Amino acid sequence: MAKSRETFNKKEKEKLRQKKKQDKQERKDARKSSDKSTDFEDMIAYVDEFGNIVDTPPDPAKKKKEIDVDSIEIGVPKYVATEEDNAPRKGKVTFFNESKGYGFIKDEQSQDSVFVHINGCVDKIQENDKVTFETEKTPKGLSAIQVKLV
């Protein structure tokens, strides 16, 4: 007589498969039985003036701010040169490499670091010298010209 090919392990796996199938069917039946008929009004959400999602519609009686449309700037405003841009500035040479001919000046007012080349110097400068200079717009940023010792 032939021995049955079903082992204990196979029986256990089959039981688990059947249990999963039954659980899945029960969940499906539960979803169908608890079918909520949702109204469109229940699904709507509103956004308040602070950007938060709320359930209540906005109150039209609230005061609305009038905004001048022409005052809104999109993008970066154009740079307008002022008279103080061309005025001589004062600063201190923080770094200067004589062999390469360039360095940096720290502006006293804005604390910005401005590039300086030896061609833009009137006097010979070294590190830690106090200087006056004018600036010029270059493709790589501001550059100091007319650099003179104080």
Automatic annotation (TrEMBL):
GO terms for cellular component: cytosol. Keywords: DNA-binding. Residues 1-38 are annotated as: Disordered. CDD domains: CSP_CDS. One of its GO terms (molecular function) is DNA binding. Residues 1-15, 23-38 have a biased composition (Basic and acidic residues). Residues 88-149 form the CSD domain. The keyword GTP-binding does not apply. The keyword Transport does not apply. This is Cold-shock DNA-binding protein family. The lineage of its organism: Bacteria, Pseudomonadati, Bacteroidota, Cytophagia, Cytophagales.
